[in-house]
Design brief:
Elements (H helix, E strand, L loop, with lengths): L1 E5 L3 H13 L3 E5 L2 H10 L4 E5 L7 H10 L6 E5 L4 H9 L4 E4 L4 H18 L5 E4 L2 E4 L4 E4 L2 E3 L3 H11 L8 H9 L9 H13 L8 E4 L3 E4 L5
Parallel strand pairs: 1-2, 1-3, 3-4, 4-5
Antiparallel strand pairs: 6-7, 7-8, 8-9, 10-11
């Protein structure tokens, strides 16, 4: 998932950059309003995190301009101003959510996930996921690689569907546990690592191209890029 952060405060911007990348998001940082507007126009984004007070052009002006040009990317606005009027103005100008500084990083992550989930619900859900020659038929919950059926358990299917829904995105162990097991704590020691080994043996063993990869210090991803 590609996120653009527009934040002029170096400390906050760098904190968001490091934290979101550690959670597996691809993040780009802009320091001014005009720079943020140009980057938002240049690339397809999953989400825009936009500070209200920016040099050159305010966050509200950036948001209003993008909406007027037809951009539908979800916008999470950040601000140290917590007056109801400020929040209402931000939402009326096109922001999807508004978070007041200072904020807890876990709350930011929860709001990001809610906005991304809402965006996915508004788009038709793909019936089939495919990465290279690996296919997952969501209707029948049937997995195949190179035309051969791969038999998976329910948890293995849920894990694989999560990874295939965003090829190339790195998922931390915590995010995998939350999405597949519905918990923030490991119910068994190294359960994620155990399931990674199981999936590898079933989808990668015997194939020249390895799809399930470990990103040391961050987590796991599934993509077709050569290691």
């Amino acid at each position: 998932m590609n996120i653009l952060v527009v934040e002029d405060d170096a400390r906050v911007g760098d904190f968001l950059l490091r934290g979101l990348r550690a959670e597996g998001y691809a993040v780009q940082l802009a320091r001014t309003g005009p720079e943020g507007l140009a980057l938002a126009r240049a690339d397809d984004r999953a989400l825009l995190i936009l500070d209200l007070m920016l040099p050159g052009m305010s966050g509200m002006e950036v948001c209003q301009t993008l909406r007027a040009e037809g951009f539908q990317v979800p916008v999470l606005m950040l601000s140290a101003m917590n007056q109801t009027e400020d929040k209402v103005n931000g939402l009326r100008l096109g922001a999807d959510d508004y978070l007041t500084k200072p904020f807890a990083f876990e709350e930011l992550l929860a709001r990001i996930e809610a906005l991304l989930r809402r965006g996915r619900q508004q788009r038709p859900r793909a019936a089939t996921l495919q990465v290279a020659d690996l296919q997952l038929d969501r209707e029948r919950m049937h997995v195949s690689r190179a035309g051969r059926t791969v038999v998976l358990t329910a948890k293995e299917l849920a894990f694989l569907e999560l990874l295939m829904s965003a090829p190339g995105r790195v998922y931390s162990r915590e995010r995998i546990l939350a999405n597949v097991w519905g918990t923030n704590e490991d119910p068994l020691t190294n359960v994620v690592d155990v399931y990674v080994r199981r999936l590898r043996s079933k989808i990668d063993e015997g194939h020249a191209l390895t799809l399930l990869k470990t990103v040391r210090g961050f987590g796991y991803k599934l993509d077709a890029e050569p290691s």
